[in-house]
Amino acid sequence: MPLCITPLGCNARATSCELRDTSFESRVLRVSLSKSKLFAWQGMSFDVPEQWELAAAGGDAAEGHCRLEDLLGPRCEVRWRHLNRPADLERVVGSYLGKLAQGAKKGKYDFSSEQDIRLPKLGKRFEGRDFRTFSWGGGSAGYGVAWYCHHCGRCVILQIYGPEDEDGLDLLRSARDHGRQDGQAWSVYDFSFSVPADYRLKRHELKAGCLELEFESEQESLLFTRFSLAARTLAAGDLEVFARGCLKQKLADYAGELERGGDSEHDYLRRQAAFRKRRRGVRLLFPVDRKWSAAELLWHCRPQDKIILVAWQGRTAKAPDLDELARKVRCH
């Protein structure tokens, strides 16, 4: 089955331009990776300019999409689907460009497109993968690459909005379609961490002041949360007061001693205990409780004025090494 994509294309809010246009508007649209950061989501990762942030995300590891924007509008779009056999990339790209042409026709724009364009040094980056490059112009403009990875079975379309330049090529060259065997990187809004490979994203909440991503494996869950404006939050009490309220609200309310520690840049609290969780959604004369284990690590990063929580719950007695997970969280 070919990868089905509904492109933003000519409906994108980016300023109109033509490929290789040298106007002021097109120069503003050019990618600048002089100061870049990692974006990583569902196994997809690449380097993006600091101003680009996640604006939309959907699907899961098997099939999904992400769109990144800045103040000018959409800047980058990636879509993926897991296939059981190699993709017909000519058909995939042709279908994508056909939908762009339809959008241009509705908007009464002249449209032009091209496949197999020359993007320097891209072949070396996608060695071992089937790939096909493309570009288009009409209303707005863009270029990108579609590829199929024989290792993970993903078919991917990655596109940049704007005229082709060296910085944009660097972004395409940095793209990866699957994580490492020992863990998968996640990085959004400068919140970067690594999750064991057998965990899958269950839910995410990306709000101003609080980013939260919860992952699940078989009978286990893992929570990563980052709170902003820590100094203001802690003005009414210390980290332990915050922890008592935070852990009670987000996690099970169970007895467990908080272990305090810290260094010159961090204060941390740790808690680990066993508790019983009542089965939900089951009506029994005598409700059955199940024994669970839990472990949490909460710390205040003073240099970045952030509070970060890593929490685990599971039916197994042995919790993962939270210190190791915490070392893979970039707090400053």
Compact overview of the structure:
It contains seven helices and 18 strands.
Describe the structure.
This protein has 332 residues and is of the alpha+beta class. The chain folds into two domains: 9-173, Protein Transport Mog1p, Chain A, CATH 3.40.1000; 184-327, Protein Transport Mog1p, Chain A (3-Layer(aba) Sandwich). The protein has helices at residues 24-29, 89-106, 122-125, 166-173, 230-233, 239-250, 322-327; strands at residues 36-41, 44-49, 53-59, 63-70, 73-82, 112-115, 129-138, 140-149, 154-161, 184-188, 191-195, 200-207, 210-217, 220-227, 259-262, 266-278, 289-301, 306-314. It has a seven-stranded antiparallel sheet, with helices on one face. Strand 4 and strand 5 (73-82) form a beta hairpin.
Shape: elongated
**What's the end-to-end separation, in Å?**
43 Å
- Output the strand order for the largest sheet: 3-4-5-9-8-7-6
From the alpha carbons, calculate the radius of gyration and give it in angstroms: 23 Å
CATH class of the largest domain: Alpha Beta
Report the mean per-residue pLDDT as an integer.
81
Number of helices: 7
Q: Strand-and-helix sequence, N→C? A: HEEEEEHEHEEEHEEEEEHHEEEEH
Low-confidence stretches: 1-6, 10-29, 282-288
CATH architecture descriptor of the largest domain: 3-Layer(aba) Sandwich
Question: Helix/strand-derived class?
Answer: alpha+beta
- The helicity comes to 10-25%
Sheet with the most strands, sense and barrel status:
7 strands, antiparallel
The overall number of domains is 2
Q: How many strands in all? A: 18
Strand content: 35-45%
CATH topology of the largest domain: Protein Transport Mog1p, Chain A
